[in-house]
């Protein structure tokens, strides 16, 4: 059957985000003679810059938006096709684009990313932030806002509530503590004062404590909240594609209409019951509003804790959904519960010659006991890079093993202006009841938590300039029995680095 194919490429990558672009770079540099196409809707692509390997598994980089021609200049055998994907016909190995063209592929990698779950579709008072455009729209609306409600407890919410100034923020989180995806209650407690104070107070003396936390409910689903501000404004998934960089708010002043600086009130353990307009409020007499709602607001939000808040607008930051839609129709992809494309340890989906990387996929290989998938920039880069290597290896019939970066979960970020390092099962994820936590906390300075299981270190949370990441990474990787050293591990008077040299 003739599908009117314009051209067949050896490799086609869909998506101009970090996973897709990294995959293209890897393929094109490993096989410069390969015919590669990148299909992406927007004029810009996301590129990793200033990449730095901090330790064995920790990496730091920035994300830059660049015109796609930069990639084509670097890789003469790369073609960038500017269109969204309309459909995929796996049987004939073809892709149709929204602008009516048809392309063939020998191997395809889907890197279409994810989009935010929006609380309400088509509600002008509910915003998400996904790309630079929507961040700017947010900034514009914020400039006139006196009060906003932020719903969600992932990375975007954490950054937003901290960055927004001059506007009252009501922050609704479904958990008992803020930042539940990244922190336990202790770390949240450490961070809370940053929301209230403008300047850090003087550090209090070092304090050591040891405790065990509540177990997560058995079989509690792992939440895949992305820490990376990938909020959309209800846009079609394949439209503009890529999410913001990790420092998206730098250079964008998030200031509201009020002279106050930080004013955040956290509403714990609640979700959204209802969103309604001012008119709807007037016609529902049973609705009682507290004194915090004097005057009229354009929109009201009722939380499941019974409270209702009027506000200028609502920011929906409640996690992401993989962008799989245009690829599914007529095909047989195996999906996971979180709606991601299942991939094996070679980043291959269940369809022949089709790989996937980044937010759109769910890692379904048998994970290392110290790794978990989270839809983060770091993992998008790692998966894109590894997928590219796998595609080349398969073409050349060379063996390839799961990359070392999937041995240990590691992530560096910044929350509330503190450096944050997360290692391994930093929140005791999936561990039984017999794990132990060691904690050291100096108010306004550092928070260090170590997760021990059977005497071995399996995870750590490091907030502040602790300088412990490399030592702890090594202790986690070598799985040394730390029972004899338990008392010394977090002793601030012992240089732990020398200790294990
Ligand atoms: C592009 O591919 C052709 C073969 O298809 C090859 O001869 C050429 O060297 C490649 N260009 C670069 C810059 O590698």
From TrEMBL:
Probable FAD-dependent oxidoreductase; involved in the cellular oxidative stress response. Required for normal sarcomere structure and muscle fiber integrity. It comes from Channa argus (Northern snakehead). Its cofactor is FAD. SUPFAM superfamilies: FAD/NAD(P)-binding domain, NAD(P)-binding Rossmann-fold domains. GO terms for molecular function: oxidoreductase activity. This is Pyridine nucleotide-disulfide oxidoreductase domain-containing protein 1. Residues 10-164, 301-384 form the FAD/NAD(P)-binding domain. The keyword Transport does not apply. The keyword Cytoplasm does not apply. Residues 414-479 form the NADH-rubredoxin oxidoreductase C-terminal domain. Pfam families: Pyr_redox_2, Rubredoxin_C. Keywords: FAD, Flavoprotein, Oxidoreductase. Residues 215-242 are annotated as: Disordered. InterPro entries: FAD-bd_OxRdtase, FAD/NAD-bd_sf, FAD/NAD-binding_dom, FAD/NAD-linked_Rdtase_dimer_sf, NAD(P)-bd_dom_sf, Rubredoxin_C. The lineage of its organism: Eukaryota, Metazoa, Chordata, Craniata, Vertebrata. Belongs to the class-I pyridine nucleotide-disulfide oxidoreductase family. PYROXD1 subfamily. It comes from the Eukaryota.
